[in-house]
């Protein structure tokens, strides 16, 4: 496997000099963040990001993400031009050596939590989702942690209205339409598309979710069979859905050659509903058997990219929720140990 670390570019408060000090770190996972969704990324921006990473001995082989415009998800008349721009971005990232693109097809919200600084018993804080708190949210007057700056109230309401007549099948068909145009380009330039699962993996505010479980993945891979149509196995996102068997999914899709990227993190289920909080990476901290998941990956030949996903804020750090340095660095060390042991006992 290749261990990687999310890096938000030159404005990231975590410098590349720190990232390279994490043991066994091969590269960064990044993107061009200030170009409007749907537009083509300037090649010189990609070249600069790559040169910066390389100057610290780090690769830039994974992009997370090239965002998919909402009009593509909605199947609007302008989607062909937007998809053409997307294809051009795939070609451009390939020119700078990118091998994998992580993306998602979630309507409006590509993640949802009810609290950004949930206080844990150990004194750390982390992202969390409370079923009880979510039930109190008024969809007509939305104020959501992490999203209040992403849309104006009017923009958000208008976007939600546009999805009112979009069914699960409509959204799935729009995903297939998108993939049937993008994947041939990936086949040409040898780039793997790795779809990120819904986070959390269930419908919210009546918005359909179509990448939530094993059946959803089987349907997608059947519709677009190319091996470059693959998966980001996010253990935290799939793991919030209590019916998802993560070690089984890791075994099944690794055998198929579909697991191109892995986000490793743990979650703790906190009640009998859908509530969960994000915890330290080790198995004992949460509800997922991280060692069993990694063993399933290794035993079935996984050789793709891995990154420690959402960490807590620990040691007094006041970092970007989910993306501080210290807990993700600890997570990376733990991941190194899991893979080394699994590989030696294969």
Explain the overall architecture.
The protein is an alpha/beta fold. The chain has helices spanning 16-19, 43-55, 70-74, 79-95, 131-135, 153-162, 168-189, 214-223, 235-239, 246-255, 290-299, 326-344, and strands at residues 2-6, 25-30, 59-64, 100-103, 115-119, 125-129, 192-195, 229-234, 259-264, 267-269, 276-278, 305-308. The chain is 38% helix and 16% strand. The protein has one domain (2-344): Divalent-metal-dependent TIM barrel enzymes (TIM Barrel, Alpha-Beta Barrel). Helix 4 runs parallel beside helix 7. The radius of gyration is 19 Å and the shape is globular. The protein has twelve helices and twelve strands.
> Sheet bearing the most strands, described?
8 strands, parallel, barrel
Number of strands: 12
The helical percent reads: 25-40%
| Rounded mean pLDDT score | 95
Order of helices and strands: EHEHEHHEEEHHHEHEHHEEEHEH
- CA-atom Rg in angstroms: 19 Å
Q: Strand-residue fraction?
A: 15-25%
The CATH class assignment is Alpha Beta
Distance between the termini: 14 Å
CATH topology call: TIM Barrel
- Uncertain spans: none
Can you tell me the number of structural domains?
1
Content-based structural category: alpha/beta
Number of helices: 12
CATH homologous superfamily title: Divalent-metal-dependent TIM barrel enzymes
Shape: globular
Main-sheet strand order equals: 1-2-3-4-7-8-9-12
């Amino acid at each position: 496997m290749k261990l990687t670390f999310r890096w938000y570019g030159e404005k990231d408060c975590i410098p590349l000099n720190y990232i390279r000090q994490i043991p066994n770190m091969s590269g960064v996972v990044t993107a061009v963040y200030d170009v409007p969704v749907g537009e083509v990324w300037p090649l010189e921006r990609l070249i600069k990001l790559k040169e910066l990473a390389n100057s610290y001995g780090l690769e830039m082989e994974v992009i997370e993400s090239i965002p998919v415009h909402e009009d593509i998800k909605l199947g609007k008349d302008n989607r062909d031009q937007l998809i053409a721009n997307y294809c051009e971005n795939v070609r451009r990232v390939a020119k700078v050596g990118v091998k994998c693109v992580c993306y998602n097809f979630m309507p409006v919200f590509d993640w949802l939590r009810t609290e950004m600084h949930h206080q844990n018993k150990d004194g750390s804080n982390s992202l969390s989702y409370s079923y009880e708190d979510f039930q109190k949210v008024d969809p007509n007057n939305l104020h959501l942690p992490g999203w209040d700056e992403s849309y104006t109230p009017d923009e958000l309401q208008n976007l939600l209205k546009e999805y009112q007549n979009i069914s699960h099948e409509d959204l799935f068909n729009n995903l297939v339409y998108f993939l049937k145009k993008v994947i041939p380009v990936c086949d040409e330039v040898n780039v793997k598309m790795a779809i990120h699962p819904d986070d959390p993996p269930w419908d919210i505010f009546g918005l359909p979710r179509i990448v939530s479980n094993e059946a959803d993945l089987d349907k997608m891979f059947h519709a677009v069979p190319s091996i470059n149509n693959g998966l980001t196995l996010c253990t935290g996102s799939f793991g919030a859905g209590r019916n998802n068997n993560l070690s089984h999914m890791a075994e099944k899709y690794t055998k198929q050659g579909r697991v191109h990227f892995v986000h490793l993190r743990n979650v703790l289920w906190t009640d009998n509903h859908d509530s969960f909080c994000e915890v330290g990476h080790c198995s004992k901290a949460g509800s997922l058997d991280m060692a069993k998941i990694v063993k399933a990956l290794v035993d079935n030949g996984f050789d793709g990219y891995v990154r420690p996903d959402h960490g807590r804020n620990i040691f007094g750090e006041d970092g970007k929720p989910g993306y501080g340095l210290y807990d993700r660095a600890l997570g990376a060390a733990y991941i190194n140990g899991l893979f080394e042991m699994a590989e030696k006992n294969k």
